[in-house]
Amino acid sequence: MKLNCGKHTLDLSRPVVMGILNATPDSFSDGGSYYAGGALNLDLVLRRAEQMLREGAAIIDVGGESTRPGAAPVSEQEELDRVVPVVEAISANLGAVISVDTSTAAVITASAAAGAGLINDVRALERPGALDAAAGTDLPVCLMHMQGQPGSMQQAPHYDDVVAEVGAYLRERMRTCEEAGINRARLIFDPGFGFGKTDEHNLALLRHMAQLAPADIPLLAGLSRKSMIGRLLQREVDERLPGSLALAMLAAQRGARILRVHDVAATVDVLKMQQLVDNPNQ
Ligand SMILES: Cn1c(SCC(=O)Nc2ccccc2)nc2c(=O)[nH]c(N)nc21
C-alpha cells in the first residue's frame, strides 16, 4: 500500500506516525507555541519539525485552524498566513511528507503549491470549493468523519449504529471524490475520534475500525491526548501519554496505518514492538 505524496512516496505496508505541529496561536494541546511575541517563529517551527522527523515521524501535520470546541473561527487569510509559510519552510529545509490540516479551498491550493504532500480535512472536503481544489492538486486526501460542527458537536452525539453510519458516510464521500476526479488510490479514511462522538461511540469505532474502510483504503487514527482519554482515565492533557500509547497500539492492531500523535518517539517504539509481535515475518 503506497501513497504518492507530491515529491515523496509513502509506504504504508506498516503503520506510520504523523507528528502534530500546531501552527495556531492557542496550541494548548502540544504545549509548544510558535508565536513568541505575536509573530510566527519559523525557526521554532523548523526545530520542532526536525525533532519529530529525527524521532521517526513519516508525516508532519500542519494545522492553522483549531477545531477545539469554542475556538474562534479563523479567516481564510489568517489561515493562509499561518499555514503556507510553515509548509514552505519545512518543504524547503526538510525532506518530509507534509500534511496540511485544512478544510479551506484556498489553503489546499496554496499549500500544495508550497510543497504539501497530503491534504488532511476534518470536514471531508465538504466546504465550498474544497473538492475541486483537492482534485486539482493530485495529492492524497484524508477524509474524516465529523458529526455536526466543532462548536456544538459534543453536546449530544447520537447514532443508531455509529460504526455503520460512519462507514456509510466515508464511502459516500469516496463516491463524491471519485466523481470529482479524485482516484480512490489517493484516499484515506478516518473515523474522526472525538468529533461528535461519546466515549462509547469512540470505543465502538476503535473496536470495529477495520469495518470502516475497504481493504485498499488506508485508515488514519487520531487519538493522541484526546479528551476521551481524559474522561476514561481521569487524566489532564499532559498526563495522557500512557493512554495515548495504548490506543495507538490498539488502533494499529485493528488496521490503522497512520497514527496522528503528539509524542512521536514513544509511539514509534510502541509500533515497532507491535509489528515485531503481530507481524513477525515482515
Ligand atoms: C486535525 N485533527 C485533529 S485536531 C483534534 C485534536 O487533536 N484534539 C485534541 C488534541 C489534544 C488534546 C485534546 C484534543 N484530530 C484529528 C483526527 O482525529 N484525524 C485527522 N485526520 N485530523 C485530525
Automatic annotation (TrEMBL):
Q: In which pathway does it act?
A: Cofactor biosynthesis; tetrahydrofolate biosynthesis; 7,8-dihydrofolate from 2-amino-4-hydroxy-6-hydroxymethyl-7,8-dihydropteridine diphosphate and 4-aminobenzoate: step 1/2
InterPro entries cross-referenced by the UniProt entry: DHP_synth-like (IPR045031), DHP_synth_dom (IPR006390), Dihydropteroate_synth-like_sf (IPR011005), Pterin-binding_dom (IPR000489)
Using the record's annotation, list all stretches that form the Pterin-binding domain. 15-272
Q: Which cofactor does it need?
A: Mg(2+)
Keyword list, A-Z: Folate biosynthesis, Magnesium, Metal-binding, Transferase
Q: Name one GO cellular component term.
A: cytosol
Family matches, as SUPFAM superfamilies: Dihydropteroate synthetase-like
Q: Name one GO molecular function term.
A: dihydropteroate synthase activity
Keyword Acetylation in the entry? The reply is no
GO terms, biological process: folic acid biosynthetic process; tetrahydrofolate biosynthetic process
Domain of life where this protein originates? Bacteria
Q: EC number(s) on record?
A: 2.5.1.15
Question: What reaction does this enzyme carry out catalytically?
Answer: (7,8-dihydropterin-6-yl)methyl diphosphate + 4-aminobenzoate = 7,8-dihydropteroate + diphosphate
Purpose: Catalyzes the condensation of para-aminobenzoate (pABA) with 6-hydroxymethyl-7,8-dihydropterin diphosphate (DHPt-PP) to form 7,8-dihydropteroate (H2Pte), the immediate precursor of folate derivatives.
Which family does the UniProt entry place this protein in? Belongs to the DHPS family.
Protein name, UniProt field: Dihydropteroate synthase
Q: Provide the species name.
A: Microbulbifer donghaiensis
